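Hi team,

Filling in the usual template for the complex we talked about on Friday. All components are listed, including any nucleic acid strands or ligand strings, so the model treats them as one assembly.

SUBMITTER: L.P.
PURPOSE: interface mapping
COMPONENTS: four
RESIDUES: 534
SEQUENCES:
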Amino acid sequence: MILKDIVDAITPADNDEKDARTVLERKFDGVVDLSDEEISHLAELQSESNGFAANKDVVEAGEPADLTLILIEGWAYRYKTLEDGKRQIVSFLIPGDFVNLYAALFDEADTSVRTLTDCQFAGANPDQMLEIFKTEPRLAALLCWSAGEHDAILAEQIVRIGRRSAYERIAHLVMELLIRLEHVDQSSGDSFEFPLTQEVIGDTLGLSTVHVNRTMKRLRNDGLIEQNNGRIAIKDTRALADAAQFDRDYLERRRVPHSLMSRIFDS
Amino acid sequence: MILKDIVDAITPADNDEKDARTVLERKFDGVVDLSDEEISHLAELQSESNGFAANKDVVEAGEPADLTLILIEGWAYRYKTLEDGKRQIVSFLIPGDFVNLYAALFDEADTSVRTLTDCQFAGANPDQMLEIFKTEPRLAALLCWSAGEHDAILAEQIVRIGRRSAYERIAHLVMELLIRLEHVDQSSGDSFEFPLTQEVIGDTLGLSTVHVNRTMKRLRNDGLIEQNNGRIAIKDTRALADAAQFDRDYLERRRVPHSLMSRIFDS
DNA sequence: CGCTAGGTTGAATACGCTCAAAGATCGTGG
DNA sequence: CCACGATCTTTGAGCGTATTCAACCTAGCG
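RESULT (copied from the run log):
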C-alpha cells in the first residue's frame, strides 16, 4: 500500500499504472456513490473478458446478438454499411461503454460493431442482465443512465453531421472524445491516444478522406491540435471548443443526476 | 358492440373512426401479447393527457424535465439550436412515442421538444415510472424495447445524413415515417398526414429549404410521391424504397423479439 | 527490401448553399 | 366576402464547400 502511494506520488496520473479500480467503477465515479457490494457486483460483471484483435467485427448487423458487451479496454465503433459500399460510423465505443444494452430485447443487431484497436470485452448474457434488474435496482438505474448518456451522444452526433462545417465537425468530435475519455481516466491532461485513421473520421462525420486530411491540416496550422505517433494533443482547449461551438456542459451537466436517480440511491 | 362491428365493416381501416384501442396498445400490438391487466395499466398511463398547440415547446434543452411524456396524438420533434441560430432536428415523435424516457435520471433535458401540430401528451412522473419497473416487469421490458427502437431510429438518422444524397435522404425519411405510422395505424394505404414544412425537413436532414424544395420536386416528377393538402402519397413504394436504399427490414425485423423478451413474456 | 496501409497534395467537378424575389395558401379581421 | 398579412413554396443565378480521381509520399512490417 505504501509502495503504491509512493508510486502514485511519483508517476503522473496518466501513466500505465492505472488505479486498481475497474473501468465501470471509474465511469460511475462522480455520478453516484456505490456501495462495496455494488462495486463487487460490477467487478464480477467485468471479471471475464475476451480479447479481440484490431479491425475485427464483434457484432454483425442482421445477426443474432443477445450478449450485452462491456468494453473494458481499447476502442471500437458501431457502424452500418450501405448497399453501395458506403459506410457510416454511428458512434465510438471507449472503455466503460456498453455495446449492446438492448441486445437481449431484439432478434438481430441493427448495427455492426468493429474493433479499432485490440480490445477486451466482457459479456453479460440476458440472464445476468435480468438478474441485475431484479436484484440490483440501483445498478439497473445506472445502466439506464448509461443508455440515456448514449442517447445524448447520438443526438449530438446528429447535430454535428447535420449542421456543422467540416472544420467544426472534426473539432467537435475531438472535444467530445476528450471529455468522454476524461470520464474514464483515459486522457492525460489535454492529450490522449488517438487511433482513428482519417478514413474512419470521414466515415464518422460524413466527409471524404481527402477533405478530412485537408481540414485536420488546418486545425494543426491554426494551432488547435497537434498529432504525433498515435496521440492527439489539444493545444488550446478553449479555442478548440469555440471553433467547434462545443457546449462545454454537454455530457458534463448530466453527471450529477438527482430526481429519480438520487431517490433510488438515497433509499 | 354490434353497431361498432357494423361500422367497422363498412368504413375503411383508415377512416376517422379509430379503433377503441389506446395508441400504446396499438403500438405494442404485434410485438407481444399483453394481458388485460397490462392493457388497463397502459390505459391508465394514458388516461390524463394535456393539449398543446402547434409549434410550442414542450421541453426545453437545459431546463429540468423529470416527467416522461407519452405522445398520444399529433406530431412533435426533438431538436437542438446552435449558438449561431442553426437548428437540427434529431428525431420526429409520433403518437405512441415516449418523449423523455430517461427524463427522471437527469437534471436537465439535453434536447428541446416542440409540437409540430396540435398535440395531446400524457405524462408519467418518476414515481409512476418507478412503479412500473417494480411491479410490471413485462411493461418495463416494453419500455426498454421502445428505447431500443428509438436508438435504432437515431442510428439510421445518422446514416441518412452522413452518407446519403439529398434525394436519398428525403426518400428515406418518407419511407421511415410511413413504416412508423403504419405501426400505430396512422397511415392509410400508402398515404399519410404530412405536416412537415420544407424548412422542418431541411433542419432534419441537414439541407437548406431551397434544396429540399428542388429535391421534392424531383421526387414528384419521378412519380415517387404526390402531395396534396397536407398529405403525402407514395405512388410506388418499391421505387421509393429503392431510391432511398431503404432497408425494408429496418424497424420491421425488430418487431418480433424473442430471447429475453419472450422469456419475460412467457413466464 | 518490398509490400501495404495510411497520409498528403493537386486539379477538375458537382452537389448543395446563399441571396433574392416572386407565387401560393391560409387564417383573420375589416 | 374580400383584403391583408403571415407563412410556406417555388424559381433563378452565382458561389463555395466538399467530392472525386489520381498520383505521390511515408512509415511500419514481414
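MY TAKE: Chain A touches chain B through 63 residues (CB under 8 Å). The first helix of chain A runs from residue 2 to 10.

Thanks, L.
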